[in-house]
Amino acid sequence: YKVMFPGPTGTNAVEAALKLVRKVTGRQDIVSFTNAFHGMTLGALALSGNVVKRESAGIPLQHQLTAPYDGELGVDVDTVSVLDAMLADSPNSVAGVIVETVQGEGGLHSADFGWLRRLSECCKRHDVLLIVDDIQAGCGRTGTFFSFEPASIEPDVICLSKSISGSGLPMSLTLIRPDLDIWSPGEHNGTFRGNNAAFVTATEALSWWVDDSLTNDVHRKSEMIRAELESIATEHESMRATVRGRGFLQGLHTPIAGLASQICAAAFERGLLMETSGGAASDVVKLMPPLTIEDTQLENGLAILRASVEAAAP
Ligand SMILES: Cc1ncc(COP(=O)(O)O)c(C=O)c1O
Which of 78, 153, 284, 312 has CB atoms 3.0–4.6 Å from 277's, for a disulfide? Predict the structure, then answer.
């Protein structure tokens, strides 16, 4: 991939990706998925499934089509076949498809690896470019550097941000299949492309990838998280909770209105920062620990989560 520094935030990486796939294909529409989140600037916002966020645009959000994410129509429906029909029905209008392998803001729905493979094949079949938005799920958060690696797909464009700087400093990247880099010099530019301090911390963060130890560690601790979340869900039947997500991007979904927020508030009182996920419904309690967390810190955090569920659950 060629590396582009599109600006300091995730939404900048997405905007650059959208402009490029439109320029390369000469087409205007982008397909995104139900419950997707890709950022708050107008192009990225048009791809978002969150109605409240969409309304903040103040103008119609255009040139976007929504396809059902994996599992959206029930376990028996392969939603790639819906996308397949949509693309067949609109030849020469769709430039690209953008997907998160785990929907970080939209409720921690995670796509099956087979589904991702079929999605990639579908895009190729219709000559449509595939953008993976790995801004939240990438950089090791699901265990591998790119979240799509276990699916063995090769997206045309990849967006990275958040953990890429290793320490929360502003940095984002748009990775481009080399033959697609048809930008003219300065065509997509701006002032704050490279935060110097973020380059230093990003270099340090990448040094953790010289061998498999971080990957192995994240996989091992992800199992600890999974087991603990499953156990909390089983013990608190009244929550009707299910475990969602993968790696260090897992959480508990509960259909009881307001409960996820109450659990996060109870965790805050006990010294643990947790956020909700799930768009306007906010019905998922979401974990997002640092990749370098120690076992004891993780155990302490999970114990606080358990106590917070005990305090808030009906
Ligand atoms: C998948 C995904 N894409 C894009 C963005 C937007 O990134 P930023 O808030 O840095 O603009 C986010 C932010 O949460 C995200 O999770």
Answer: 284
Q: What kind of fold does domain 2-209 have according to CATH?
A: Aspartate Aminotransferase; domain 2 (3.40.640)
CB distance 174 to ligand 1 below 6 Å? no
β-pair partners for 64: 30
Residue 167's pLDDT is: 87
Maximum distance among all Cα pairs of the chain, rounded to whole angstroms = 59
Confirm whether 2-209 and 213-312 share one CATH topology: no
**Residue ranges per structural domain of the chain:** 2-209, 213-312
3-state secondary structure string, 51-111? HHHHHCCCCCCCCEEEECCCCCCCCCCCCHHHHHHHHHHCCCCEEEEEECCECCCCCCCEC
Q: Which amino acid is at 312?
A: A
Kindly give the pairing relationship between strand 29-33 and strand 64-67.
parallel
The rounded distance, in Å, linking the Cα atoms of 25 and 256 is: 45
Full strand arrangement of the beta sheet holding 129-133: 2-4, 173-176, 157-160, 129-133, 94-99, 29-33, 64-67
Q: What is the pLDDT of residues 71-81, one digit of tens each?
A: 999 999 999 99
Ligand 1 atom at minimum distance from 9 CA: 10
Is the distance from the beta carbon of residue 37 to the nearest atom of ligand 1 less than 6 Å?
yes
- Centre of ligand 1 to C-alpha 107, Å, is 14
Architecture of domain 213-312: Alpha-Beta Complex (3.90)
pLDDT at 314 over 90: no
Query: CA-CA distances (angstroms) from residue 250 to 83, 105, 265?
Result: 27, 12, 18
